Fold:
Amino acid sequence: MEDLKAAGNDAVHNGNYLAALDFYKQAIDAVEENKVDDLAALHSNCSFAHLKLGQSQEALVEADLVVALKTNWSKGYFRRGEAYFALKDYYNAERAYAKASELSPDDTSIKKKLTLTQEAMTGFYFRQLLPGRDFCKNASDFIEQQIFSSAVQMQNYIYLVGDAKTREAVVVDAAWDVKGIKAYAAGENINLVGAVVTHYHFDHTGGVPPPPFDAFGIKVPGIRELAVEDKLPVYVNKNDAKTLLTANEVPSDAIVELEDSAVITVGTIKLQFIHTPGHTPGSQCMYIQRSPQDMLLSGDTLFIGSCGRLDLPDCDTKAMYTSLQKKLAVLPDSTRVYPGHNYGGPYTSIGDEKKTGFLRPISEKEWLKRNRL
Ligand SMILES: [Zn+2]
Structure:
């Protein structure tokens, strides 16, 4: 049996899936019926070979046999997911991949397939990128090394949001490593069609860092490069637009000034902006209606258990009160909140922040007293 299995694997290696199937089926005939592990592995291999031959229905039959033999083996569910995905039955593919992922929670390749299936079902593309993990890796010189290590220290999240079917997305708060962000998008077959700015601070847009870091003559790559090299439109609230022109030197014809509640569409996906001044005059959040929960990209307005700094020259504590209490706290509790920095996790929710964070009900008077600078 081992010889036949090895011959099958060799055939797979050489791309000869018909021969591989033949060997695996002979091996199955040669295996004693009580050798469940061996049988399951062989049927799994048959499923794979059928899939490679474009025989998705046969691949599914073999995957079902694997699951019947070994109900707690993630591989069987993974094979089932692969077969359903090939059959474009995304509902059952998702269920199968989810079960596989539950049985092998550390397997990133299963998670990736699960994400792809959900994208195929919903048409929605969303990625949360972290410096050091998804970009700002492998600096090519000393300067870049300094920039990348600052990004890792600052923990800026960058987001890609768009249409999974048309493969178009906007990048939110692109800074630090434009090359790396573009490489990530290209690796996912995503075409960047715009750059969204939650607010003008350099760690979200690039450009010259504030003192004392401006002394080194280093410019952080960001929005300007995307506007100039890639001709991307830059979506910024009108109150923060001026800084992008002057400090970031973004060409004026690239800048799209947004009002409160402006909507842009990427493919079929609608992105709505909520003007939330306070951290800067033009801070804005991006709201996306999704099932089962809506999403809010909150920039530096709302973090897990806190809000953006209010001690910088352009900050407005009173405006922040209105932004938090009148504009964000009124969103559905289930809304998932994706902040501009990784301060304690990837996301929170409006409901959780209303219970334990900076959306807790508070009077304006009390808020101003607590945040007196
Ligand atoms: Zn900021």
